[in-house]
């Protein structure tokens, strides 16, 4: 063997060993990742938002007439019976206080009315005296007429004067009543709130409860002056509760009557079952906590559980209903955090022999956390969660503990 061949046989293993050592030293490090095994299970697609409970048929009892309402004795939670339980009593309101000018004018009107009343009384006395004189004159002429001392014409004239005096007396007395009424009206204008006498048996308007149920809220409790239509209290049946939730209009169009609902965060140990009864056709604008105007739609949900399970719920309580749009019991599903876009399709990295393998998948329904796998993956395969930019096809993977 030549010296060159000997040198080659000597250095070749060393160079190969050095190359392998350098390749091992400078190879890419394994990427630490979180792996999850995909499997089959239930998947629910739903929409949810904060809602509140309310009595299905709530009645606002209002004042039918203006006046002074006495203090309401009912309290929230009291039971009322339709057309029997007295809600409130409203009496005529007190007169308003007069300013200096109005008071002076009212006193002057009283003085004028008193003078007119005195004048009317004097007129009655004068006309009454004339009537007495006419009646006496008529009596004398009748006596003379029997003896034909006076003519028939004188008798007729005396009777006419007597009738005229009697009519004048009636007119004077009527005028006196008018002046008396004007005097009382003028005095009434001087009445003040302190001068009004209040009694227990007043000419009050009694307001009864229109329906049977419980008092939900007393709106106006203290005694005071109320106008016609002023709310007094709210009445309803707490056994007939419903849930109202205002959804974004883009979510409300996916909801329809009859869909299942799960009522959560109501305070009980387990969620309550419900069903959508109505999606209101009228939307409204609501400003979110971030100051963004949003179009909202009210969705009404009926509670299907027995009353004993939610008897502590009342009107206006906060709940979080979840309306089920689609539900599957045995669905192959993948976490959304493992998916990323690969061109026009979705893809995941599958752990295959300790290396990352790119796999394109087709997904179906998704709920914001998980998605239904239509094709591309099989149950039991392990995929990478939250793949970063270091994860690439063929990259070595190291599972985090």
What does this structure look like?
A hairpin with a 2-residue loop joins strand 18 (345-352) and strand 19 (355-366). Helix content is 28%, strand content 37%. The chain has a six-stranded antiparallel barrel. It has a four-stranded antiparallel beta sheet with strand order 4-11-9-6, with no helix packed on it. Strands 8-7-5-10 form a four-stranded antiparallel beta sheet, with no helix packed on it. It is of the alpha+beta class. It has helices at residues 3-25, 100-146, 152-188, 249-252, and strands at residues 31-37, 39-48, 51-55, 59-62, 67-69, 79-80, 86-91, 205-208, 213-218, 224-226, 231-236, 241-248, 260-264, 272-287, 293-303, 318-335, 340-342, 345-352, 355-366, 370-375, 382-385, 397-399. It folds into four domains: 27-44 and 330-399, conserved putative lor/sdh protein from methanococcus maripaludis s2 fold, CATH 2.40.420.20; 47-55 and 238-327, Efflux pump adaptor protein, beta barrel domain (Elongation Factor Tu (Ef-tu), domain 3, Beta Barrel), CATH 2.40.30.170; 59-94 and 198-236, OB fold (Dihydrolipoamide Acetyltransferase, E2P) (Beta Barrel), CATH 2.40.50; 100-190. It has four helices and 22 strands. The longest helix is centred in the N-terminal third of the chain and has 47 residues, at 100-146. The mean pLDDT is 87.
